[in-house]
Amino acid sequence: MLEHPGGSLTEQTEISVREGIITGRYAPGDRLRERELSEGLGVSRVPVREALRNLEFQGFVTILPRRGAIVREMTAQDVTELFDLRSALEPLAASTAALRCSEGYAHEGLDRAMDNAQAATESADAQTILLANSEFHTELVSAARHQMLADAMAPVLARTRWLFAQTADRSANLQMHEHHQIYNSIRSGQPQLASAYMLAHVESGRLPSLEAIAKV
Q1: Residues 51 and 82 grouped into a single domain
Q2: H helices within 6-125, ranges in order?
Q3: Statement to judge: residues 27 and 89 lie in one domain
Q4: Mean pLDDT for back-to-back runs of 10 residues, the chain (216 residues)
Q5: Does 151 lie in the same domain as 96?
Protein backbone atom coordinates (compact mmCIF):
# COMPACT_ATOMS: atom_id res chain seq x y z
CA MET A 1 0.00 0.00 0.00
CA LEU A 2 0.99 3.62 -0.48
CA GLU A 3 3.08 4.91 2.40
CA HIS A 4 3.54 8.51 1.28
CA PRO A 5 0.30 10.48 1.86
CA GLY A 6 -0.27 13.83 0.19
CA GLY A 7 -0.34 14.79 -3.45
CA SER A 8 -2.13 13.04 -6.29
CA LEU A 9 -2.22 9.27 -6.65
CA THR A 10 0.35 9.55 -9.43
CA GLU A 11 2.69 11.56 -7.18
CA GLN A 12 2.26 9.14 -4.29
CA THR A 13 2.85 6.17 -6.59
CA GLU A 14 5.91 7.83 -8.11
CA ILE A 15 7.42 8.46 -4.67
CA SER A 16 6.77 4.90 -3.53
CA VAL A 17 8.30 3.30 -6.62
CA ARG A 18 11.26 5.71 -6.62
CA GLU A 19 11.94 4.96 -2.95
CA GLY A 20 11.76 1.27 -3.77
CA ILE A 21 14.42 1.76 -6.45
CA ILE A 22 16.65 3.89 -4.26
CA THR A 23 16.49 1.50 -1.31
CA GLY A 24 17.11 -1.54 -3.50
CA ARG A 25 13.70 -3.19 -3.22
CA TYR A 26 13.66 -2.95 -7.01
CA ALA A 27 17.18 -3.70 -8.24
CA PRO A 28 18.78 -2.56 -11.49
CA GLY A 29 17.49 -4.77 -14.28
CA ASP A 30 14.24 -5.67 -12.48
CA ARG A 31 11.00 -5.44 -14.45
CA LEU A 32 8.37 -3.18 -12.96
CA ARG A 33 5.08 -4.78 -13.96
CA GLU A 34 2.10 -2.46 -13.90
CA ARG A 35 -0.31 -5.10 -12.59
CA GLU A 36 1.95 -6.11 -9.70
CA LEU A 37 2.65 -2.50 -8.74
CA SER A 38 -1.03 -1.66 -8.98
CA GLU A 39 -2.02 -4.53 -6.69
CA GLY A 40 0.84 -3.93 -4.27
CA LEU A 41 0.18 -0.19 -3.92
CA GLY A 42 -3.60 -0.44 -3.97
CA VAL A 43 -4.11 1.87 -6.94
CA SER A 44 -5.32 1.48 -10.51
CA ARG A 45 -2.94 1.02 -13.40
CA VAL A 46 -3.40 4.62 -14.57
CA PRO A 47 -1.34 6.32 -11.83
CA VAL A 48 1.20 3.48 -12.04
CA ARG A 49 1.64 4.01 -15.78
CA GLU A 50 1.97 7.79 -15.33
CA ALA A 51 4.42 7.36 -12.45
CA LEU A 52 6.61 5.05 -14.52
CA ARG A 53 6.69 7.59 -17.36
CA ASN A 54 7.79 10.26 -14.88
CA LEU A 55 10.48 7.97 -13.48
CA GLU A 56 11.73 7.29 -17.00
CA PHE A 57 12.09 11.05 -17.52
CA GLN A 58 13.99 11.27 -14.20
CA GLY A 59 16.39 8.52 -15.26
CA PHE A 60 15.31 5.76 -12.88
CA VAL A 61 13.64 3.39 -15.35
CA THR A 62 13.71 2.52 -19.04
CA ILE A 63 10.46 1.68 -20.82
CA LEU A 64 10.96 -0.79 -23.66
CA PRO A 65 8.45 -1.93 -26.31
CA ARG A 66 6.77 -5.24 -25.35
CA ARG A 67 8.84 -5.45 -22.14
CA GLY A 68 7.56 -2.48 -20.16
CA ALA A 69 9.49 -0.64 -17.48
CA ILE A 70 12.87 -1.87 -16.26
CA VAL A 71 14.98 -0.35 -13.48
CA ARG A 72 18.00 1.30 -15.09
CA GLU A 73 21.54 0.30 -14.37
CA MET A 74 23.66 3.35 -13.59
CA THR A 75 26.66 3.64 -15.91
CA ALA A 76 29.94 5.50 -15.59
CA GLN A 77 28.57 8.09 -18.03
CA ASP A 78 25.51 8.56 -15.79
CA VAL A 79 27.79 9.14 -12.80
CA THR A 80 29.94 11.62 -14.72
CA GLU A 81 26.93 13.61 -15.89
CA LEU A 82 25.41 13.55 -12.41
CA PHE A 83 28.58 14.98 -10.87
CA ASP A 84 28.82 17.56 -13.65
CA LEU A 85 25.37 18.82 -12.67
CA ARG A 86 26.12 18.68 -8.96
CA SER A 87 29.35 20.64 -9.44
CA ALA A 88 27.44 23.34 -11.30
CA LEU A 89 24.31 23.56 -9.15
CA GLU A 90 25.22 22.71 -5.56
CA PRO A 91 27.91 25.42 -5.16
CA LEU A 92 25.26 27.88 -6.39
CA ALA A 93 22.83 26.54 -3.79
CA ALA A 94 25.43 26.86 -1.04
CA SER A 95 26.45 30.40 -1.98
CA THR A 96 22.82 31.50 -2.31
CA ALA A 97 21.96 29.95 1.07
CA ALA A 98 24.88 31.86 2.62
CA LEU A 99 23.64 35.06 1.00
CA ARG A 100 20.17 34.47 2.46
CA CYS A 101 21.73 34.00 5.90
CA SER A 102 23.65 37.26 5.54
CA GLU A 103 20.32 38.93 4.73
CA GLY A 104 18.82 37.60 7.96
CA TYR A 105 16.86 34.64 6.59
CA ALA A 106 17.48 31.77 9.00
CA HIS A 107 16.58 28.25 7.91
CA GLU A 108 15.93 26.01 10.89
CA GLY A 109 15.61 22.97 8.64
CA LEU A 110 19.32 23.20 7.81
CA ASP A 111 20.20 23.44 11.50
CA ARG A 112 18.15 20.30 12.25
CA ALA A 113 19.67 18.48 9.27
CA MET A 114 23.17 19.29 10.49
CA ASP A 115 22.34 17.95 13.97
CA ASN A 116 20.77 14.82 12.46
CA ALA A 117 23.80 14.22 10.24
CA GLN A 118 26.10 14.50 13.24
CA ALA A 119 24.00 12.04 15.26
CA ALA A 120 23.83 9.64 12.30
CA THR A 121 27.61 9.74 11.87
CA GLU A 122 28.07 8.94 15.55
CA SER A 123 25.63 6.03 15.23
CA ALA A 124 27.82 4.46 12.50
CA ASP A 125 24.69 3.03 10.84
CA ALA A 126 25.18 3.21 7.06
CA GLN A 127 21.50 3.63 6.14
CA THR A 128 20.93 6.29 8.80
CA ILE A 129 24.01 8.17 7.59
CA LEU A 130 22.84 8.02 3.98
CA LEU A 131 19.41 9.40 4.83
CA ALA A 132 20.75 12.12 7.14
CA ASN A 133 23.38 13.30 4.66
CA SER A 134 20.76 13.39 1.91
CA GLU A 135 18.54 15.46 4.20
CA PHE A 136 21.40 17.92 4.72
CA HIS A 137 21.79 18.51 0.98
CA THR A 138 18.02 18.81 0.51
CA GLU A 139 17.64 21.35 3.30
CA LEU A 140 20.63 23.31 2.00
CA VAL A 141 18.83 23.75 -1.32
CA SER A 142 15.70 24.84 0.56
CA ALA A 143 17.77 27.36 2.52
CA ALA A 144 18.72 29.05 -0.78
CA ARG A 145 15.08 30.15 -1.25
CA HIS A 146 15.43 29.79 -5.02
CA GLN A 147 12.47 27.93 -6.53
CA MET A 148 13.90 27.26 -10.01
CA LEU A 149 17.10 25.95 -8.45
CA ALA A 150 15.07 23.73 -6.11
CA ASP A 151 13.08 22.37 -9.07
CA ALA A 152 16.28 21.64 -11.00
CA MET A 153 17.96 20.02 -8.01
CA ALA A 154 15.10 17.69 -6.98
CA PRO A 155 15.85 14.90 -9.53
CA VAL A 156 19.60 15.44 -9.12
CA LEU A 157 19.40 14.89 -5.36
CA ALA A 158 17.19 11.83 -5.81
CA ARG A 159 19.61 10.21 -8.26
CA THR A 160 22.53 11.14 -6.02
CA ARG A 161 20.91 9.27 -3.13
CA TRP A 162 20.33 6.30 -5.43
CA LEU A 163 23.98 6.34 -6.50
CA PHE A 164 25.26 6.54 -2.93
CA ALA A 165 22.91 3.76 -1.83
CA GLN A 166 24.71 1.54 -4.36
CA THR A 167 28.27 2.77 -3.86
CA ALA A 168 28.59 4.55 -0.50
CA ASP A 169 31.99 3.69 0.91
CA ARG A 170 33.47 7.12 1.70
CA SER A 171 34.49 7.92 5.24
CA ALA A 172 31.43 9.12 7.17
CA ASN A 173 33.65 11.22 9.42
CA LEU A 174 35.27 12.92 6.43
CA GLN A 175 31.87 13.70 4.94
CA MET A 176 30.75 15.08 8.29
CA HIS A 177 33.83 17.32 8.44
CA GLU A 178 33.08 18.64 4.95
CA HIS A 179 29.42 19.21 5.83
CA HIS A 180 30.49 21.22 8.88
CA GLN A 181 32.70 23.41 6.68
CA ILE A 182 29.82 24.07 4.30
CA TYR A 183 27.32 24.63 7.10
CA ASN A 184 29.54 27.03 9.05
CA SER A 185 30.29 29.11 5.98
CA ILE A 186 26.57 29.35 5.19
CA ARG A 187 25.57 30.27 8.73
CA SER A 188 28.30 32.91 8.87
CA GLY A 189 27.04 34.41 5.60
CA GLN A 190 30.10 33.79 3.41
CA PRO A 191 28.83 32.94 -0.10
CA GLN A 192 32.19 32.50 -1.83
CA LEU A 193 33.55 30.26 0.91
CA ALA A 194 30.35 28.20 0.98
CA SER A 195 30.54 27.73 -2.78
CA ALA A 196 34.20 26.69 -2.64
CA TYR A 197 33.63 24.19 0.16
CA MET A 198 30.64 22.70 -1.63
CA LEU A 199 32.52 22.34 -4.92
CA ALA A 200 35.39 20.59 -3.11
CA HIS A 201 32.90 18.35 -1.30
CA VAL A 202 31.11 17.31 -4.49
CA GLU A 203 34.30 16.74 -6.48
CA SER A 204 35.90 14.67 -3.70
CA GLY A 205 33.17 12.09 -4.32
CA ARG A 206 33.47 11.88 -8.10
CA LEU A 207 36.38 9.46 -8.48
CA PRO A 208 35.35 7.15 -5.61
CA SER A 209 31.85 6.95 -7.11
CA LEU A 210 33.17 6.14 -10.57
CA GLU A 211 35.41 3.44 -9.13
CA ALA A 212 32.60 2.00 -7.03
CA ILE A 213 30.02 1.93 -9.83
CA ALA A 214 32.47 -0.05 -11.96
CA LYS A 215 32.35 -2.80 -9.33
CA VAL A 216 28.56 -2.97 -9.04
Answers
A1: no
A2: 9-22, 34-41, 45-57, 76-102, 108-123
A3: no
A4: 69 93 92 93 92 94 91 95 98 98 92 96 90 95 97 94 84 94 97 98 95 84
A5: yes
